[in-house]
Design the sequence.
């Protein structure tokens, strides 16, 4: 028996797992409909930006209704957003809250408690819709959840050891997260050999608060490498609308080039790398018409950066969890906008792209030069040492020395580099764009302004 | 001058916490930032351990009301009479006026209370207080 199989058997022997038949599940994946694989859909729609909303409800009934709503509004990919108890491996609370939600016909969970439902129930629904499902969660230890998701027919797994820790947790041990996610990568790689590949997707928005492009892309590529080195064959890097059209387009060009380049560096050029674009992830206006405009602009930019998939927001964003109608409306509006945009001109900003590529190489050079023996340890040490520094991360391991503000064109620029090892040349470039418009007395007001630009 | 700061309770509003940190540093304070999701006892321990002269607790989701009732008890346990106790942010769950909120927190044992006050104004007041009272 492999070590992976030994660990899996231990993990599924959990009092909250009703059943888990390894052979039955393997057969299911082997014979599953190609329509359930987003990797297959990407391959057959190379020039389309697939549309995926967010969403998840506790009961089977409401989840079914949500999916029906989405299907009627022209969705390409269905989301399965998991509730926060399940994300924290608190299956007892998830089960209790699911029962309450059923009994009282009211939502006591902020997502779908997949472990509580079990894979057979979930699979019935997923195969009924015969549409790719993307697992959205935020789980530091997702070993059981991912096994359950694949058993259910959800063949895209979001997350990663950095992007699901640094923006979400204060003190979940970062080293453990790397090991738990290594298990997830191995699982996805194993299942990828049976049918079409399982697609892994990293969560590029991070804290969605003035994260500079270099940090976003370094983390995207780092998670991609950790995934590919375990044998994953289909991976999506992602980033969120920055608030600057120019910076979005620069990031789109650079992330596509650099992801390929670094994959080749570790001998994984055979993997398919996709690009996902998140509509604005910061604070939304409380004005629904303005929100519509923000969402449409995001759709246009997704097309311009050549995203393979866009993840939508809704006009109700400022007010809490959207209804299925509001959520469906966003899907049909975004599809409408995307359908208008054909034959767009290509964009190039040589100076900006060169600056960003140089910064990425500078940071990776330091990461790769870390004396640790494995890639995950090198990356772990780099987070600990502040080489990777995510603005506004609540996690105790994050260095919090990097400070960013926006320049006159709303591009996010590095004001203080902290221990992020960009060269003096790169740093001077960033500073030149700020032209001394911020100093230590005005920086806080500038930041408050820059975070709230869409309000 | 040493300051201990952080967000009390299960509150994870990290942006304001980082801005307070940056502002205090640029005003010349030595900052011990305990970050989000910090319990009252951890604040007191940090003040004792670092010998800080200012404790600046913030709260965004209104949990402070529940957590800070215990402050007096901690003040009796340790010799903290030279420490300036400050709390700021959004100090109530739901709507409440400063007229109601400020006396309540003063009663808990805070020297300065800022309810829905502009960050820069609040920090200016702390600066002035520190100078005038030669803390």
Sequence:
């Amino acid at each position: 028996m492999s070590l992976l199989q030994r660990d899996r058997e231990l993990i599924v022997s959990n009092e909250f797992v009703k059943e888990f038949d390894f052979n039955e599940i393997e057969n299911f994946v082997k014979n599953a409909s190609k329509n359930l694989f987003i990797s297959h859909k990407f391959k057959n729609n190379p020039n389309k930006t697939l549309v995926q909303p967010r969403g998840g409800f506790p009961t089977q009934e409401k989840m079914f209704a949500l999916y029906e709503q989405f299907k009627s509004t022209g969705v390409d990919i269905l989301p399965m957003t998991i509730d926060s108890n399940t994300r924290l491996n608190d299956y007892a609370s998830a089960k209790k809250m699911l029962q309450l939600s059923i009994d009282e016909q009211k939502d006591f969970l902020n997502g779908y408690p997949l472990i509580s439902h079990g894979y057979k129930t979930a699979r019935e629904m997923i195969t009924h819709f015969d549409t790719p499902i993307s697992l959205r969660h935020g789980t530091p230890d997702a070993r059981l959840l991912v096994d359950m998701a694949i058993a259910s027919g959800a063949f895209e797994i979001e997350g990663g050891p950095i992007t699901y820790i640094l923006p979400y947790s204060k003190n979940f041990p970062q080293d453990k997260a790397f090991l738990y996610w290594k298990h997830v990568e191995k699982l996805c790689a194993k299942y990828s050999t049976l049918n079409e590949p399982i697609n892994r997707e990293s969560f590029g928005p991070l804290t969605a608060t003035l994260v500079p492009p270099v940090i976003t892309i370094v983390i995207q590529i780092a998670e991609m490498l950790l995934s590919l080195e375990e044998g994953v064959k289909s991976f999506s890097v992602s980033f969120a609308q920055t608030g600057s059209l120019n910076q979005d387009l620069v990031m789109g060009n650079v992330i596509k080039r650099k992801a390929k380049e670094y994959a080749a560096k570790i001998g994984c050029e055979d993997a398919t790398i996709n690009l996902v674009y998140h509509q604005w992830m910061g604070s939304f206006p409380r004005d629904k018409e303005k929100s519509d405009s923000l969402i449409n602009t995001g759709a246009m930019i997704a097309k311009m950066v050549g995203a393979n998939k866009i993840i939508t927001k809704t006009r109700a964003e400022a007010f809490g969890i959207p209804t299925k109608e509001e959520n469906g409306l966003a899907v049909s509006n975004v599809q409408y906008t995307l359908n208008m945009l054909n034959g767009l001109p290509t964009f190039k900003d040589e100076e900006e792209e060169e600056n960003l590529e140089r910064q990425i190489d500078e940071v990776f050079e330091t990461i790769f030069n870390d004396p640790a023996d494995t890639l995950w340890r090198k990356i772990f040490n780099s987070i600990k040492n502040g080489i990777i520094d995510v603005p506004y991360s609540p996690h105790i391991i994050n260095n919090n020395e990097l400070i960013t503000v926006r320049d006159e064109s709303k591009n996010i620029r590095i004001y203080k580099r902290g221990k992020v090892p960009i060269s003096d040349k790169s740093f001077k470039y960033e500073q030149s764009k700020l032209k001394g418009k911020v100093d230590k007395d005005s920086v806080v007001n500038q930041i408050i302004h820059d975070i709230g630009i869409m309000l | 001058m040493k300051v201990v700061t952080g967000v009390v309770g299960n509150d994870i509003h990290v942006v304001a916490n980082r801005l307070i940190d940056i502002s205090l540093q640029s005003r010349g304070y030595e900052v011990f930032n305990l970050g989000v999701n910090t319990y009252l006892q951890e604040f007191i321990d940090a003040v004792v351990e670092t010998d800080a002269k200012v404790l600046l607790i913030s709260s965004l989701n209104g949990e402070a009301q529940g957590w800070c009732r215990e402050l007096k008890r901690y003040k009796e346990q340790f010799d903290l009479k030279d420490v300036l106790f400050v709390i700021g942010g959004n100090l109530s769950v739901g709507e409440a006026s400063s007229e109601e909120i400020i006396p309540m927190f003063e009663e808990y044992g805070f020297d300065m209370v800022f309810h829905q006050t502009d960050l820069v104004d609040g920090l200016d007041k702390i600066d002035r207080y520190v100078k005038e009272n030669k803390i």
About this structure: Residues 91 and 106 of chain B are 12 Å apart (CA to CA). The helical segments of chain B are 14-26, 40-50, 64-67, 71-77, 98-108, 119-132.
